[in-house]
Automatic annotation (TrEMBL):
Protein name: threonine-phosphate decarboxylase
Domain Aminotransferase class I/classII large, chain residue ranges per copy: 25-351
Catalytic activity: O-phospho-L-threonine + H(+) = (R)-1-aminopropan-2-yl phosphate + CO2
Provenance organism: Sodalis ligni
Functional description taken from the UniProt entry: Decarboxylates L-threonine-O-3-phosphate to yield (R)-1-amino-2-propanol O-2-phosphate, the precursor for the linkage between the nucleotide loop and the corrin ring in cobalamin.
Pathways per UniProt: Cofactor biosynthesis; adenosylcobalamin biosynthesis
Necessary cofactors: pyridoxal 5'-phosphate
Keywords linked to the UniProt accession: Cobalamin biosynthesis, Lyase, Pyridoxal phosphate
Keyword Lyase included in the entry's annotation: yes
Gene Ontology biological-process annotations: cobalamin biosynthetic process
Amino acid sequence: MADPGQHGGNVLETALKLGIDANSLTDFSANINPLGMPARLREALAAQLALAERYPDPLYRRLHQRLARHHGCPESWILAGNGATELIFDLACLLRQKTVLLLTPGFAEYRRALQWMECRIVDYPLAEQDDFRPDHRLLSALRPGIHALFLCTPNNPTGQLIEPDLLLAIARRCKEQNILLVIDEAFMDFIPDAVGMIPELGHWPNIFVLRSLTKFYAIPGLRLGYLVSGNSQGMQQLRSRRPPWTINAFAALAGEMVLDDREYQQRTRQWLREEQSYLQAGLQSLPEIKIWRPAANYIFLRCLRQGFDLQTALLDYRLLIRSCGNYPGLTADYYRLAVRGHEENRRLLDAMTRIFSHG
Ligand SMILES: Cc1ncc(COP(=O)(O)O)c(C=O)c1O
């Protein structure tokens, strides 16, 4: 199994390699809301440190109720976890030694979790000429012998959404073929007015939707994600296998609070609207860069200057972007960068302009 250090956000490792202070790096490699956690949450955490002195409710009833109310679904459809990552590993346990279709490039933890459970992985490569978007040809790959499909929308690292019609056609095909469909919507909250697949789940007991609160609410160190599905047997199996208390009391409190914070949600969407287009326009003006239209808070790009290591060049400016060279299906020419605050985005564009002006 590949090591777990292959993600963005590994500022410490980069700093150790370079022999510099980790605090001197600006991290564009992890896609976290730069507004920081909601102020109301920060205050509540500080005020309720005593929560650490008690065991959390092992059933996380309040948290599950709140998430169910948010999505207008029964509480039994929700299972919270210590980040969406923990739930990916839980799902993999349901799929032990089964055959699973993965789209490449895609989020690395599906593969790690499935390999751990000795699954057979069938890769479905997405092509650059299709802008790394799946189309109806994917349906013919959903054939007997495939037990599960993992999809991510918007996809990480490409930032591309799956068309709603195609998603429904995939869901239908999976249902006919008895294929379990996992739809990872970790970044869906960043997309204004997007509701994702959860409202449709009543028709699709073969679907499990993954959500994460760590990115939008800037709590990757606190950790919280959840799974939504009307598959009562599958959910029961997942629930019965879970070790108790894997969600710490502060993360559970966060989940009970943040969904009500309309002001934070609006500020986030406003920041993203402005900064996504600022960064996008700046990058588009660089002839050495090809970018793909982002759906969420990160931008996928290709450096067209042959053999050039853009990540290393930007480290001279203490800016860390995600190299996508270790994604199956990509090469070292591809990168992903997070949309950050205006000043940081400006610094990034300035640095890139300087780097490319050096011929
Ligand atoms: C597509 C995708 N799914 C799930 C996760 C895991 O998120 P969490 O922090 O909730 O474990 C990530 C994290 O980067 C991700 O990019």
